[in-house]
Amino acid sequence: MNAPALIPADATLATTRLTVPGMKCAGCIGKIERELARQPGITAARANLSAKRVAIRHDPSLDEGALVAALLALGFEAQPVADNPLGTEAAEQKRLNRALGVAGFGMMNIMLLSVSVWSGADGATRALFHWLSALIALPVIAYAGRPFFDSAWMALSHRRTNMDVPISIGVILATLMSLYETITGGAHAFFDSAVMLLFFLLAGRALDAEMRTRTRAGIGALLGRMGRSASVIAADGSTRRVAAGDLVPGMMVLVAAGEALAADGEVVEGRGALDNAMLTGESAPEPVGPGTVVHAGAINLGAPLRIRLTHVAEDTAIAEIARLMDEAGQSRSHYVRIADRASRLYAPVVHTLALAAFVGWMIAGAGWHASLTIAIAVLIITCPCAMGLAVPAAQVVASGALLKRGLLVKDGSALERLAECDVALLDKTGTLTLGTPRADIGGLDAEARSIALGLAQTSRHPLSRGLAAAAMRDGVVPAAVEDVRETSGMGLIGRWHGLPVALERPADAAEALATTLRIGETCQTIAFSDPLRPDAAQALAALRAEGLAASILSGDRAAPVAAVAQALGLDAQAEASPQAKLAALESLKAAGHRPLMVGDGLNDGPALAAAHASIAPGTASDASQQAADAVFIGEGLMPVALAVRVARRTMRIVRENFGFAIAYNALAIPLALTGQVTPLVAAIAMSASSLVVVANSLRLARSAAQ
Q: Is-above-0.70 flag for pTM?
């Protein structure tokens, strides 16, 4: 590594970001941040487990190759961000899934043979079953154990340790002892325990990898809303397409109708409307004209606009939201699932006990064979199956029950955090309300309704879709409107029986959610509303019954937010930016609260990621759904209250499962340590403890229905 020995005090430092797919736990983060900062030429390193990325502050003379080499010296392979921007590790995930499948296949077959041995098979039959178990187990362990063996070897070869080291030692020890018993015609082989341990550990690791992949996909979906390129206007008036990454502030760009903005800027020429719901949450198109500040990701719904760029690439508002989501996700990584925490503590404890049993009995003169057999009995009887199932079994049953009631739980730890929430913040548009404009056509006669439908059904504008849906719900037959033309920013114009007809922007610009139906010289205003979800009041009452005080936190304008707040009897904060929403959540957390955030817009993304727990409706943006812990479908809000209630019951069941697992081990471990338990009895006891935990968890299936 070509590193300078000393960084001058007045030197200008550089920041380089590298993707590190091999980061797996908080221990890896600590290792990278602590050791990398000690390297010459590097002043600081900050790792992000969710994004699998490390930001390194260093002397400019260090290039990417030197930084990659420094990370490799610590046992972590790294790549430039451009080569793997989202830190994806598809190959590693496929490897885990294949290993999980192989371990599951091997576990089921070996357990069938073990049951026969436990049932009394003896002599040649037992020896045959042991050999068959060995033939299945050896290749299964060699393949399914590779994720642990490789990780342990990488750590040991760089003179460090991780949680995979004791796991690998335990699996290899049990396998070698079983092989010895098989070759010498012994009574006991423990291939089943070794493969079962691998299966449960791989299941937890595959679930963890899937969760982190979804988090990174949410950030990618957000940045994907930005335009990929823009038409830059040259001095002679000609245009050329320029990639978003090559845009610079000061450029003049032409944004056509239907095009997404690739950078932030200010409108210089042209009038129209933007679909800006991704930033503001406001469902109505936002009118724009000269002087209006516009942001990347917004879609031009009206006439072409000339925009002078002010902020590009990483400086845009949408990139700032992505960064906030990224950082919020990083803080969430402290919430390691209970099962992971238990397994992380359990593995070294189990192997320490097994080692203590072996050493103790050797000192007592029992001989190496008897001592090792007792040690393996300790290993089997304390296999963390019941402990490992205590949380996942309850979560799976509860998640399945909630799914039947219209709520999809995405994150394995979401139920734990939902159960702890004590205050709820809800967005307005699309969360408390349905988020789709609904037309009030009660004031139109049959002829006007027919003409309105004839015009509206030819457009994909949100107001046109709302008007057409309202008319069709009333069974209106569309009129045969001819020569229909849609003028950007103005509306729809056509002819009906020779009369000019139109759906136009209302003369009063303040009428944001309205349109004017013109038939000849007659004009009528059609108002739109965004109705509340039908069970919003009942859902809020149910939340209050669970002890959660609710309020509105919205980016919408003050007037519509105040109307909804008054209708539901809630406190409200309107016109909140993504940063303001994040600040409100941080303030609540600083005051000791655990807030539940419910929102749907991209502007809610950072808040959804930063909240103690979060839920998004199924109509939310892709990024918001990815950032949330759970997604509810349908028009009702009741699944939100139901989720809190079921989550609290789930954690009660989890505590019962943990209590049973602790009691089981408190009884079983002393018996095993004192040599009172054979490996056969240990295997039966371990399996029975797992069944008790599963049976207790199944009680949750009725929770969502009550």
A: no
